[in-house]
Amino acid sequence: MARPQWTVPAHQVLRVGPDFRLGDLDHRATPGWGAGRTAAKERMAAAGDELSDLQERLFAHGRTGGSRSVLLVLQGMDTSGKGGIVRHVIGMVDPQGVQHRSFGVPTDEEKAHDFLWRIRRALPRPGMIGVFDRSQYEDVLVPRVHETVPAEIWEERYERIVDFEREVVASGTTIVKVVLAISPEEQRERLAARLDRPDKHWKYDPGDLDERLLRPRYAEAYQAVLDRTSTDLAPWHAVPADRKWYARLAVSELLLHGLEELRLEWPAANFDVEAEKARLAAQPW
C-alpha cells in the first residue's frame, strides 16, 4: 500500500504570502493533508526515519568541518503546542545533535545587552539542529502589546531582525520559522485541562489568563511580524494548531524539507579505508 502523501507540500501550502491574514485562518483546518489522523501518524513515523537519517548526515558534516546547521523557530500563544512539537518532532532525532533553547522574560544580564545578544549566543553550531521555543520575536511582540518600551524602539527591531536573519543564513544556517495558530476556544479548553489535572498544574501560570485577554492585541502584533519579517531567505509558515496531530505532522514536514534542501551526502573518509580494513584484520584479537 502506498504511503500517505501531502496533496500540496507543507512548505508551500503553509508559507505566509503577501496577502496572508492570520485572522482568516481556520484553526482546525489541515491544509495540504486530507488523509486524516491515522494516516498522519503513519506518515510522521516515516518522516521520523528520514529526519533521523538527514540529521545524522548534518551532524557528521559538522564533525568534519562543515558549516551547515538548521534553526527551527517556534512562536505561538500559550498552549499552542510548542512544547509538544519539541517532544514529538524533535524527539524523533538524536538529542546529541540538537540545541534547544526557550526564551522567556530577559534576565538582568540579558537586559544589559542588545536584544539580539541572547539570541546570537544560542544559535546552533555547525552540524546541529537548533530549536527556539519563542525567539527574537518576543522582543517585538511583548513590547508592542504591553507598551514596555517606546514604539520607536520596537519598530526598528523588525528591520534589525531581518538583517540578523540574513546574516545567519549567509553563515550556513537554514531557518525554518513556524507560528502555531490556536483558536481562543481551543486555548480555553487546554488551559482548563491544566487546571483540572494535578499532573498539569506545573504547566499553568496565572499570568496566562491575563495574556489571554490581550489576544486581539497579540493578533495585531503577530500580523505585523508576518508582514514585515517573512522573507525569501527566512519565510514564515502559519500552522493551524487546534489539531495537535496536524501541527506536529506539519512541523515535521517543514523541518524535513529544510534538511532535504541541504542535499548532504555522507562525508568522505579522510583515511585509507582499505588500509584500515587490512590493519584491523591483522590484529590478533
UniProtKB/TrEMBL annotation:
Biological process (GO), any one: polyphosphate metabolic process
Residue ranges of domain Polyphosphate kinase-2-related in the record: 40-261
Superkingdom of origin organism: Bacteria
Gene3D superfamilies referenced in this protein's UniProt entry, alphabetically: P-loop containing nucleotide triphosphate hydrolases
Keywords linked to the UniProt accession: Kinase, Transferase
GO molecular function: polyphosphate kinase activity
InterPro entries found in the cross-reference section: P-loop_NTPase, Polyphosphate_phosphotransfera, PPK2-rel_1, PPK2-related
Protein name: Polyphosphate kinase 2 family protein
Source organism of the structure: Cellulomonas fimi
